[in-house]
Amino acid sequence: MSSLSPALAAHLPTGMLADGQWTAASGGRTFEVVDPATGEVLFDVADASPEDGRRALASAADVASAWRGVAPRERSELLRAVYERIVARSGAFASLITAECGKPLAEARAEVTYGADFLRWYAEQAVRVEGLVRTAPAGANRQIVHRRPVGPALLITPWNFPIAMATRKIGPALAAGCPVVIKPAHQTPLTTMLVAEVIRSEAAERGLPPGIVNVVPTASSGDLVAPLLTDDRLRKLSFTGSTAVGRTLLQQAADQVLRTSMELGGNAPFVVFADADLDAALDGATVAKLRNAGQSCVAANRFLVHDSVAREFAQRLADRFAGLRVGRGDVDGVDVGPLIDAEAVEKVAELVDDATDRGAQVLTGGGRPDGPGTFFQPTVLAGVDTDARVVREEIFGPVAPVVAFADDDEAFALANDTEYGLAAYAYTTSLERALRVGAEIDAGMIGINRGMVSDASAPFGGMKQSGLGREGGEAGLEEYLETVYVAL
Ligand code: SIN
After folding, report:
1. pTM, full prediction
2. What are the φ/ψ torsions at residue 281 (nearest 5 degrees)?
């Protein structure tokens, strides 16, 4: 049985939200949300249809002008109040994340802190949108440049960080003055729906427009999203998910030339140079690989380790992984939770098999533990061929392939040998080498002697096929603003 408290379970919204009201989906259709650690059905949730999607967009469009007219200070105070309410209920949010996503409670608590922080940060940024007044160079007139909200935004969020990926989009959108329609992942809609409920009730208490936040959970994402992207009331699409789906959405969004923000796949290299502090590198590697059981687009995907320390690094990482406890996230002492579903386990198993077929050795793990749930053992592979799928594809699981390199140039060439460019990590005690990493590795985010880069106040995003635009920091707000130039 899930460990959700009966009080939380009794008050969770399970419908769709439009016009400030939670209702059933048309036709009363629902889909099941399942606990990946047990296979238990947690809730039946409204399965919004394309028609429901249009209703939610109409709700957002109806309040776009009113929301744009609300003073930045009021938008800021709404976000700050929602931040405080989420922090006050962080235990409830964490247990919900663990129930629907599987990650251990300690990680879920950390995600609530991280996720709430986007609301605090954008509460602070809402009142700092800047413009410009200057005399034109020819001296004949003035130029006034000001910013205004893009308009109704569709936010499509993934299942791996159910609160943080929602607030990272909702925070800047509302701060900028854009009403939103959120389409949460069908595996983990409940946490996002609870966030939306906090915003809805706080907005209602403040007399703010009811339709600023709308939610359309659905099991048929493509059917719901495609017509919205061709509806001229929509002006913005923000998506976090795979590069393959991102490409399709970009093609659909081209029809209306929508503003788009795309946080797509990654294949982060984790580079350990010969001069690295190996204990620190092992700590960083464990975090960078095993946060959410490796199911993150910034997870370390490939461990590139200098020849002189590769064997020692791989063996010591394997010793650490072997000592970790895999299990249900709500059980004390569990370090690694389940993967999201059976398909994810299947894919990770295929990648490991492909690597071993090409000669890799399994130093620890390599398979599924016995029992229910969709688990995979923390795994370290040594001597991995650089053409192995586990090196070339995004793993999204707790598998660490180790590849040795001979010198810095080879490390940089291997690191950049991918169509992705999201995150990278490097361990070195040389400042000069660290600066070179920043200059040579093609990635939007680089952790030096750190296994974690995520921060609400920093620009999160990638280059190459890892996406377009940034979320978080000052840049995250820009994604929801238009620039208007007035020649006076
Ligand atoms: C992601 O995996 O998409 C986001 C992870 C993070 O924000 O740290």
Report:
1. 0.97
2. -65, -35
